[in-house]
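User: For my dataset I need records formatted as: sequence, then structure tokens, nothing else. Please produce one.
Assistant:
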Amino acid sequence: MTLYAQWQVNNYTLHFDSKGGSNVPDQTVAFGAKATTPTLHQNWPHLCRLVQGGWSSYAWNFATDTMPASDTTLYAK
């Protein structure tokens, strides 16, 4: 008899706290995957300020950082 491992990577939620700016939708991201940088949208007039300042809960780099094994909140700087 041959047994095969079957598993699925867990997904976690990346929340964005805009500190009173426009609402930025949460992202569902697989553990170890990269999140997508929030982009400007015509319905997000206050996001320009937030994108220029960046996001942080700790120093997060959308180009290199991957999703940890927990839900995470990034705060507008």
